[in-house]
Amino acid sequence: MKLYQAVKWLMTVAAVLLLPAMYLVPALAERRGLFSWMLYGLYILVVLFVWGVTGRGNRNVSQGFDPEADNQKLEETREIIREKSRWSAYWTLK
């Protein structure tokens, strides 16, 4: 997992440094066309996707994620919301 974090940060740094490099490095300045900006935008989307993959919702059992505990918390929350709802009498009729 450490390698993944390093690659993620390396991609982020590259995305941030590429923007000023397009204006400061003469070899890159020659290639500032629409196609280059579209590729840069695509690269930014890939970096955002990589950052999104590491979110809390992507945990699995090997990382300490217990779906039964989360489901129990969800059921408790639903019950609390039903009790507070003024329409709760209609839900209990079913």
Amount of beta strand: under 5%
Any low-confidence stretches, pLDDT <50, length ≥5? Answer: none
Distance between the termini: 48 Å
Instruction: Report the strand count.
Output: 0
Helical fraction equals over 70%
**DSSP summary: helix tally:** 5
- Biggest beta sheet summary: none
| Order of helix and strand elements from N to C terminus | HHHHH
What coarse outline follows from CA principal-axis ratios? elongated
CA-atom Rg in angstroms: 24 Å
On the 0-100 scale, what is the average pLDDT? Answer: 79
Backbone structural class: mainly alpha
Pick out its properties:
single chain, mainly alpha, 5 helices, elongated, 94 residues
Task: Describe it.
The protein has 94 residues and is mainly α. The protein has 5 helices and no strands. The chain has helices spanning 2-24, 26-29, 34-53, 67-84, 88-92. Helix 1 (2-24) runs antiparallel to helix 3. The chain is elongated.
